[in-house]
Amino acid sequence: MDYLVARELNVLYIILDIIFLLMLGYLTIYLKKYRALFFGLAGGLIYFLVDYGIFYAWLQTREVVGANPALFLLWLSMSYGFTNFLWIWLFLDRDKHIVEWSMLIVIGWFSIALIAQSFGSNFATISISRGTGSYHGAMAIMLLVGYLYVIIRNLTHKSDEKIPIVRLLLIGIVVQFSWEAVLLISGIRPEGLRPLITNSLLETNLGMPYLYFIHRALSQQKNNHS
Fold it and tell me: Measured in Å, how far apart are the chain's first and last C-alpha atoms?
């Protein structure tokens, strides 16, 4: 079941992505989306703890060539962790401008990837890769536990509001699929549909039940203080 997930990108990509992240962060502050901003920053830190602490340092399934692993993985984790968790929060919040936010994020990812591929030939290249067999089983357990709890809760709590299982699935799959597809189409990730399909179904989606309850608890806390 083990297969290699790899990417190759240049430093121009990193520069453009950092500018995009700063713009996205500023926009959330300007529009007073403070909880979404906090959620995004927390997501970036969680991604870093997992990617560097577990995949790289502990399991040693992550390899970085051409850059300092800690600094590079900090950027990479904040890039996708911040953006993914910010986007998920806005989805769960049923933000009235979710279409605009979604277009901003996807177009930003896609444009940056293509610009860097077209004009980044004079910049240093960095390659990263990781195996999957050592942790996809653990991820599948988290996916099973989270959705099993949600399903059983919906079946047994007749009077409570039903948890929107289909909506959670769609959010988790759409968020992961969007940037997996951008990596594949832009040539940053080698050709192959298996990482695209498996990661889209598993890697962000596994956290959706847990993120739903965190979002609900924080939203209820905000309403109680209002």
Answer: 50
Residue 205 gets which letter from DSSP? Answer: G
**Nearest-angstrom CA–CA distance, 56 and 70:** 9
Mean pLDDT in consecutive groups of 10 residues from the start of the chain, 226 residues: 71 97 98 96 95 89 92 95 97 97 96 95 92 75 96 86 94 94 85 82 94 94 72
- Classify burial at 201, counting beta carbons within 10 Å of its beta carbon; exposed 0-12, middle 13-18, buried 19 or more: middle
Q: CA of 1: how far to CAs of 59, 92, 162, 194, 205, in Å?
A: 17, 33, 35, 11, 19
Q: What is the DSSP letter of 188?
A: S
Amino acid at 188: I
The DSSP call for residue 133 is: T
The pLDDT of residue 198 is 86
